[in-house]
Design brief:
Blueprint: H1 2-34, H2 38-74, H3 79-109, H4 120-151
Helix pairs in contact: 1-2, 1-4, 2-3, 3-4
Length: 152
């Protein structure tokens, strides 16, 4: 059973981390580079991030369940359960608070390419975007020790 739980845990952790690296460092920058407007690129990246948020919830729940089994039955570090819980909390904050505010601001502004860079809504949007990126990177960083706990 230990090998099965480790396999599922490693698979889910690899999918989560690999997806986050792909979206954050490959897909999003490339989309902003090739699409004609920031508005189009932002809409597409926003859709990707919404799908990734759903994937994150599913994967982290699986990690928590497998982590509980590994921790209680086989003596693995409690961090393999605690860190996915933090990742879910951070994802909730990013998606349900920061992301929701960003979506509302974007809806009020319409096409962001037509909004002055000094507009108060655009300034607030840019500030929230910075927080969104920080939370995204924090989740990536929290996933790294999980590899250590599993392979130790």
């Amino acid at each position: 059973m230990e090998i099965l739980f480790l396999y599922i845990y490693n698979l889910c952790l690899s999918i989560f981390f690999g997806s986050s690296v792909f979206i954050g460092f490959i897909a999003a920058p490339y989309i902003f580079k090739i699409l004609k407007t920031k508005n189009e690129a932002g809409n597409l990246v926003g859709l990707l991030l919404e799908k990734f948020a759903s994937l994150t919830y599913i994967i982290q729940i699986i990690l928590i369940i497998c982590g509980l089994a590994l921790s209680y039955s086989f003596g693995y570090a409690a961090g393999i359960v605690i860190l996915p819980v933090f990742i879910v909390i951070i994802n909730l904050i990013s998606d349900r608070i920061v992301g929701l505010k960003m979506r509302r601001l974007k809806q009020n502004m319409g096409n962001i390419d037509n909004v002055s860079k000094d507009d108060k809504n655009r300034l607030m949007f840019n500030s929230l975007h910075k927080w969104s990126v920080r939370l995204f990177i924090l989740n990536q960083l929290l996933a790294l020790p999980l590899f250590y706990f599993i392979f130790k």
